Amino acid sequence: MVMLGTLPVLVVGGIATYIATTRLTQETTEERQRLANEIGAHMEEFVTDRLHDVEAIAANPMVIDPDVRKTVPPENILQYLESYIERDPTYSVITVAQADGGYVYLNNDPNLPFLTRIAEVPPEAYDPTYKLFAVRNVPYYLGVRDTGRPTLSVRASSVTARTGIFVAVPTFTDATRRQFANMVYSRTYAEDVSQVISRQLLSELAGTDEEGSSIKFSVMNHPPLYFEKTPDGKEQEILSSRIQTEDGTVKIDGQEFQPGGAIFTKQNQVFVSDDNQGAGVEMQSIFPKYAELSKSGVAATTTDVSLADGQKYLLTYAPVSQVEGLSYDWGVLLYEPTATAFAPQRTLVLTLLSGTLITAVLVAIVAAYLSNRATQPILEATQAINQLGQGDLDARLAIQGEDEIAQLGWNINTMADQLQHLIAQQEEATLQQTDLADQQRQEKEALQQELAQLLEAIADASSGDLTVRAELTAGEIGIIGDVFNSIIENLRKIVVQVKTATNQVNASVGDNESAIRQLADEALAQVDEITSTLNSVEQMSQSIQAVANSAREAAEVARAASTTAQDGGVAIEQTVASILTLRSTVAETARKVKQLGESSQQISQVVSLINEIAIKTNMLAVNASIEAAHAGEEGQGFAVVAREVGELAEKSAAATKEIEQIVKNIQTGTREVVEAMEAGTMQVVEGTQLVQETRKSLERIVEVSVKMDQLLHSISEATVSQAETSQTVANLMKQITRSSEQTSDSSRHVAGSLRQTVDIAQELQTAVGQFKVGTED
Q1: What pLDDT was estimated at residue 733?
Q2: Which of 2, 218, 373, 752 registers the highest number of CB atoms within 10 A of its CB?
Q3: Nearest to residue 17, comparing CAs of 356, 445, 389, 282?
Q4: Residue 493's CB: how many other CB atoms inside 10 A?
């Protein structure tokens, strides 16, 4: 009983603990995933803003047009660049480079490179002949120069050795974007980005249970980079100009790259982290599972043991979406010791387990108390009966309540009182009638012997022997024995009747079961045969239907062919008339084509006039750009309009050239069309003769098609009749199949019910078999 009371408490406590910990773990995982996605979105927004800024700078006329740049004071140009840094202090440099890799200088002054004043300028920048970006093979410069598209690069600065994020875009000399002119790029140090993300993360966690937690983050650059050891033992990145990829094979300096040699790779390198430490470290060297996370390309959460401190960490990964126009592969990783991340879960588990154990102990105590209270009266009654059996007639039970146990105690006390009173009377009679002592002793012994015999008969009957009978004597014991004999005889008759009935049930059910099982088997066999026949009938019906469809389609085709041939005859008559009309039309068309050639001459004159207007419009746009540059920031809007007008003028000039070429092509084509029409007139005459011969062939086709249509129509009617008959047979077979299946199911159900009846009868037969009823058992 104690177990029954405590087991539900333990089960409920365990389930509650499991559900609560699962829910908390899920919430923790979802929260970490949300934070990782937020950081990834911030990195995407950061790249987008950087790209838009350099594209806006690259679209400014004083950046892309050297003539405009000469008319604008250098301090205005530099102030224009520095205005971006004033708006976003995380910029470390914004500059413009020439197509050949050297800096762009303002007013041709080598002391005024086209870059922000706060930038760290290498000494070589002040040498106009030194092409810094080309000599150093700067990756983002090479990417812009070779592809003509925006480029993003993460690398350590050659000047400061600090990791920077570089975004570069090209400018072109004309609207066709074919001639590379300049490169505009910006640099942002990774540590500044880390500070922005850290502030964002603290803001996200402010006011929550996670505030002040030990969550760390890093942003990794996934693509592999190639390094080699320098003579002084340092690692040096191999320039992209030395790396070629052919059919998936990487070659460095013309030699195929082999892992394990002097040249090695690094991938999944950290470039942004919360503590600005570990730049350039491969994340899989700390958390081995990161390589698998980065390859999956989807947000995920897992746990891993850090190779740095041996602790188990909760890892949350989120990829950084690519900005349109740029190619890069970044990933964000949040990591936190599981001991910290799942501390609330452990606290909850301990609390729930403690509460469950305390509750279980209390329930066990209450159950033990209730169990003892329920069984104690029974134990006391048993002890009292044992004392009475041993002759202690003073034994009594303390009765409490009015339940069955209390009634049992009352009966035991009453029986003890009666026995005690009876013995007292006997003892008193013995004292009063000493002369009758021997007679009473003999009566007493006889009474005890009769009682013993009666108890022996009762014991035999309780063990199942219904043939036993009590000896009948005079007196009360004799009356009890007579009643006992009557009860035993009636019970014996009932048992005999039950045995006979169960035997008859078993025999009858056994016979019926075999017959019903045979009926079910035969019904199943009949279902299989009918199903097989039905399949054959359906196949035959499908074949007949297919023949009918084919015959019908053939008849329709023949009828269509006949109709088509008749229509063809009419069409040929019309064709002959049309060909004759065509001859006159061709002559008229030739005359109009000649007039078209004369009109194209007039178009050439109009095109020359449009070309002259486009040249003057282009000059007007250049003058407007110069005036806008003089106006500074207030003229930026007008400068954009002027640039668009200039581009429109260039497009107009290009369009006039194309129109001139088209007019020349029209004139050439006109001459060729006239010649072709003359040849076409000759071919029309020959076509008339061929059409007449074709008409006669079509008349013969009509006759054959009519006969074929009649034959196929007869075949179609016959096959349709057969298909309807086979379908009727198939429907009847399906009805028979369903009836057989229902019969089989009913037989199986009846057989199952009979089997249950047999089982119950056998159980009853086993039960009554324990009784001994005489020779018939």
Answers
A1: 67
A2: 218
A3: 356
A4: 12
pLDDT score for 387: 74
* Orientation of helix 636-768 relative to helix 476-631, angle to 10°: 170
Q: Which two tokens stand for residue 435?
A: 């002369």
**Residue 107 near residue 70, CB atoms below 8 Å:** yes
Phi first, then psi, for residue 274 (nearest 5°) are -65, -30
Q: Do 74 and 336 contact (CB within 8 A), yes or no?
A: no
| Cα–Cα distance, 40 to 296 (Å, whole number) | 16
State the sign of the Cα–Cα–Cα–Cα dihedral 289, 294, 300, 306.
positive
Angstrom CA distances, 524 to 385, 736, 740, stand at 67, 12, 7
Of the candidates 376, 375, 397, which has an alpha carbon nearest to the alpha carbon of residue 386? Answer: 397
Q: In angstroms, what CA-CA distances link 484 with 449, 478, 490, 625?
A: 17, 10, 10, 132
Coarse DSSP helix, strand, coil percentages of the chain, rounded to the nearest 5 percent? 70, 10, 20
* 686 CB-near residues (< 8 Å, 6+ apart): none
Predicted local confidence at residue 320, as pLDDT = 94
Mean pLDDT, residues 598-603 taken together: 69
User: What burial class does residue 700 get, using C-beta atoms within 10 Å of its C-beta: 0-12 exposed, 13-18 middle, 19+ buried?
Assistant: exposed
Q: What does the DSSP 8-state code read for residue 467?
A: T
Type and span of the H or E element at 421:
helix 404-432
- pLDDT score, position 156: 78
Helices marked H in 225-309 — which ranges? 290-296
pTM over 0.70: no
- CA dihedral over 388, 393, 397, 399, signed as positive or negative: positive
Phi then psi for 288, rounded to 5 degrees? Answer: -60, -30
CA angle 459, 463, 467 (to 5 degrees): 85
Per-residue pLDDT reduced to its tens digit, 23-46: 767 777 888 899 999 999 999 999
d(CA 666, CA 382): 129
What are the C-alpha distances in Å from 529 to residues 171, 249, 516, 536, 541? Answer: 84, 67, 20, 11, 18
- pLDDT score of 722: 66
Residues 6+ apart with CB under 8 A from 239: 137, 139
DSSP class per residue in 102-166 = SBPBGGG-TTSBSB-TTS---GGGG-TT--HHHHTT-HHHHHHHHHSS-EEEEEE-TTT--EEEE
Cβ contacts of residue 212 below 8 Å, gap of 6+? 205
Average pLDDT over residues 649-666: 75
Structure tokens at 630: 């003089």
* pLDDT per residue as tens digits for the range 472-495: 776 667 777 777 677 877 777 777
Task: Give the chain's mean pLDDT.
Answer: 75
Instruction: Look up residue 693 and give its two tokens.
Output: 């011969």
Q: Which two tokens stand for residue 671?
A: 């001459």
**Phi and psi at residue 527, to the nearest 5°:** -60, -45
Q: In 73-93, which positions are buried (b, 16+ CB within 10 angstroms) versus exposed (e)? A: eeeebbebbbebbeeeebbbb
Within 10 angstroms of residue 107's Cβ, the number of other Cβ atoms is 12
At 44, which amino acid appears? Answer: E
> Is residue 123's pLDDT more than 50?
yes
Query: How far is Cα 76 from Cα 469, in angstroms, rounded to an integer?
Result: 134
pLDDT at 336 > cutoff 80: yes
Contact (CB, 8 A) for 14 and 359: no
| Cα–Cα dist 140/170, whole Å | 11
User: How far apart are the two ends of the chain, measured CA to CA in Å?
Assistant: 43
pLDDT at residue 44 in the model: 94
Is residue 20 within 8 Å of 355, Cβ to Cβ? no
